[in-house]
Write a structure and sequence with these properties.
Length: 215
Amino acid sequence: MRTTLLRTAAELDALPRPAGAERAVVMTMGALHDGHAALIRAARAAAGPDGQVVVTVFVNPLQFGEAADLDRYPRTLDADLEIAAAAGADAVFAPGVDEVYPGGEPQVRITAGPMGERLEGAARPGHFDGMLTVVAKLLHLTRPDEAFYGQKDAQQLALIRRMVRDLNFGVRITGVPTVRDADGLALSSRNRFLSAEERHTALTGESQGYYADFA
């Protein structure tokens, strides 16, 4: 199917909404893989043939503690568009940083609270504040009826659900089962950077409950 690439909020606003049907959104940081495709297929199934599926591709600087980590995050938009189209997306919203944060880093942000200070949040202070802030912005921009997130990122999913409940967002949040590689490691855009030893450590870390981003 043909997938429309949208770069600005104005283009997203101009995207016609399906009359009498639902819009589903899948948020990603790009470098799409089979795990993301599973999310898009789940959104397509929920929205139905008459509904609309929007995939967001945005590498959120607020989620990165180090500039070097942000700079090396894989960016593969052309391949992402192909994967999104094959999985059933109607549109891909891939804004630049200036489009999402037009005045620079936002002074007002969502705070994850005590839930965001445990597990991964203890090792990455402020990470979940940045994640929730961009999720809130993207939910406002895309205005979906339902949003889909991977269960791989268990703490992230729990925080998004809590934010939506606490702040009365009018959207359903749906978790999609984790897609794993042959060795059992959950698929992630960052896995390409792992050595064999680091991959083994990552498998151990998963068993202890540590997770990543939209990756």
